[in-house]
C-alpha cells in the first residue's frame, strides 16, 4: 500500500499490507506531459522534437482527471518550455483544484518573473529548474546569462519547493561541485542528475564522464537530496523502494502531439483519441501501439 500526500510530496509505503492485485491502481504512478514543443532557447543537447506542436488544455485536464481517478499520483508538465503554453497558469490551477495530483513542471527558468511566480503560487507543488553548468559553461550552452537565472531562482522559491535539473556530459561535469553549492545556497531541496541520453544527433554521456560521475556520487554527500533519472541510473548507488513495480506501472509520457509513450525518448507510442488516456494506456501495454 502506497500513501502519498501531494501537498508535501511525502510517500509512505506499508509493505506489510497485502493488497489484492484486482484492487491495484491502473494508472502509472507518475505522468509527464509535453504541453508544447516550442522553446525560446536552443540547447545543443535538447531532445525535444522540433516539430511545431502543442496540446489543447481542455483535453489535458480531461486526461488528468481520468488518470487521477485511476490512481496516478502526480503530473510533470514540460515541453519545450511549458511556460510558453498559452494559459499555463490557468491549467496548473485547474489541475491542482480539480484533481488530487501533485503538479510539477520543468522549466529553463528565464520566464519565471515575479508576476508569473505570483500567478503560479498555490497551483504548483514542485518546480524543476534546469541548470546545466554554471557561469561561462551555462552561458555557452544555454545562451543566457547565468546571473539572470540566479535572480529568477529567488522568485521561484516563492512558488513552491524547487529542485535543480543538471544534464551531465563532458561539458558540464566539471561544474558539478559549484552547481550543488549554488543550488544549496539558492534554497533548492533536490538536485537531479540527468546523464545525457543518446539522441539521433548526439551520442549521450561518454564513458569517461560516466565514470567521473560515479566517482563524484560516491565521494560526495551534498546538503540536499541527490536524485538521478531512471534512464541514467546505471552503475549509480540508488534506492529502489518499489522493488516489485514494473516500468509500465511507474511512469508514462504524453508528447506535444498527444501520443502516449513509455518515455519522452521513445519515438513511437499510441495516439490518445476520444476513448481517453486509459484506453491508450491499455493499447500501449498490450504492445499493439508500436507502428
Ligand atoms: S531549455 Fe529545454 S526545451 Fe528548451 S532548448 Fe533547452 S533543453 Fe530544449
UniProtKB/TrEMBL annotation:
**Classification via CDD domains:** Radical_SAM (cd01335)
Q: Which PANTHER family match?
A: PQQA PEPTIDE CYCLASE (PTHR11228:SF7), RADICAL SAM DOMAIN PROTEIN (PTHR11228)
User: Which positions fall inside the Radical SAM core domain?
Assistant: 25-231
Under what name is this protein listed?
Radical SAM protein
Against Gene3D superfamilies, the record matches this protein to: Aldolase class I (3.20.20.70)
Q: Which organism is it from?
A: Dactylosporangium roseum
InterPro entries, per database record: Aldolase_TIM, Radical_SAM_PqqE_MftC-like, rSAM, rSAM_sf
Domain of life assignment: Bacteria
Q: Which UniProt keywords apply?
A: Iron, Iron-sulfur, Metal-binding, S-adenosyl-L-methionine
Name one matching Pfam family: Radical_SAM
